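Figure 6 in text form: structure in, sequence out.
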């Protein structure tokens, strides 16, 4: 019985450490302050130019873009309002995109994502969030 209790405690403590190490957007008002999942790595094109929100009407469906600005607020489960020098828009940030980083509205970030155009609507799905140092 003691072995089962000890094993249960060990498993539960490991799970709680994993959950708290995931990072996410921190504005002080969020109910969901941490994200549970992290994505694995991959190729990053450091030479890809930064796109501005004002260029939204030139984006093509399935185009990969890089936005740079600040995450102003969380407006839905995975939806966040971002702002750059040219304007604001709402993007969807996948849970794994945070990669363990905590981001506040004061932090400048690069957002790597993909454009999804459908039904006369443009959405951006962010796959990676990177703090600009």
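Output sequence:
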């Amino acid at each position: 019985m003691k072995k089962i209790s000890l094993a249960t405690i060990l498993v539960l403590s490991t799970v709680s450490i994993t959950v708290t190490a995931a990072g996410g957007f921190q504005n002080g008002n969020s109910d969901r302050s941490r994200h549970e999942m992290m994505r694995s790595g991959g190729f990053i094109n450091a030479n890809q130019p930064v796109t501005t929100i004002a260029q939204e009407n030139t984006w093509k469906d399935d185009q990969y873009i890089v936005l740079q600005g600040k995450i102003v607020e969380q407006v839905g489960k995975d939806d966040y309002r971002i702002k750059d020098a040219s304007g604001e828009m709402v993007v969807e940030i996948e849970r794994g995109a945070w990669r363990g980083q905590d981001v506040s509205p004061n932090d400048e970030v690069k957002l790597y994502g993909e454009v999804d155009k459908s039904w006369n609507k443009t959405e951006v799905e962010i796959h990676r969030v990177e703090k600009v140092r």
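Caption detail: The chain has one helix and seven strands.
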